[in-house]
Amino acid sequence: MTGYAALTREIGQAVLAVELKSVNSRFLDLQFRLPEELRPAEPALRELLAAGVSRGKLECRMAIQPAAGTAAQLAVNEALLAALARAQRTVLDALPGAQPLRVGEVLHWPGMLANEEAGAEALRVAGVALVKTALAEFAATRAREGDKLKDMILERIDRMQARLALIQSHVPEAIAAYQEKLAARLREALATSDEERIRHEIALFGVKIDIAEELNRLGAHLEEVRRVLAAGGAVGKRLDFLMQELNREANTLGSKSVSKELSDTSLEFKLLIEQMREQIQNIE
User: Which helix (H) or strand (E) covers residue 108, if one does?
Assistant: First the structure.
């Protein structure tokens, strides 16, 4: 299912921003776009998102920017700088020809620079908390989309149940017409004593005449779809299975058709089922 949420929060003199965005996918696919300062938080973020979302291609973007009207304030780790200077003197004493460290190399040394207002641990904790808040908003947008999909599915179910009730009332008439047609064929076959054709026509009639089971199963599956939707929760996989079963019964109904009306009904059912299946594959 699609979903979107974006939040920002000030952490000292920095602004932390998060964006959650998902598109349809049958499975869960998590992607992260994180600044280096928040890379250590990725396992916690992955666990948090996986616990809240089970389907969809979900992208989590985070950024850290200076707060408006403030300049970045950097602090040198003096203890680390002193240790690095001592280590350099030791190396130069042993290897006089070695190149000394440059200022840029020192400044980029891991842990040399830190934001006095927001340390690495504070950013990690704030980042996880902000994603947790954004996830609640994200879930709300998906819930609203889920309600729309539910209405669409129920509308298709209503149409199928109405058509099912209609054909059930017409089945006896369709069977009677088919029986008359079969009787004419049998009289023709008997006139020529074609026993093989007689057996074939009788066998064919026996197969086509029994569609009550398919109609009953179609009705039961449609009611089960309603029940699953009413129960709520993570219903995508259950609904996907029910669509497979509905499609199977619709195909069998078409193969046993004894009238144009039954054939048309089978085609309409398969069209409606396919419309539902396309959306259900994206429901969590």
Answer: none
Separation of alpha carbons 211 and 257, rounded Å? 8
pLDDT score, position 168: 74
Report the alpha-carbon distance of residue 251 to residue 214 in Å, rounded: 10
Q: Judge if 103 and 127 occupy the same domain.
A: no
Residue of 235, 226, 248 whose CA lies nearest to 280:
235
Within 13-131, strands assigned E span: 14-23, 28-33, 56-66, 74-76, 113-115
Structure confidence by residue, pLDDT tens digits, 233-273 = 778 888 989 999 999 989 888 877 666 777 888 899 999 99
Of 47, 54, 45, the C-alpha closest to 22 is: 54
Question: Could you list the residue range(s) of the whole structural domain that residue 258 is in?
Answer: 147-280
- Identify which of 7-16, 59-68, 140-149, 217-226 has the greatest average pLDDT: 217-226
3-state DSSP assignment of residue 69: coil
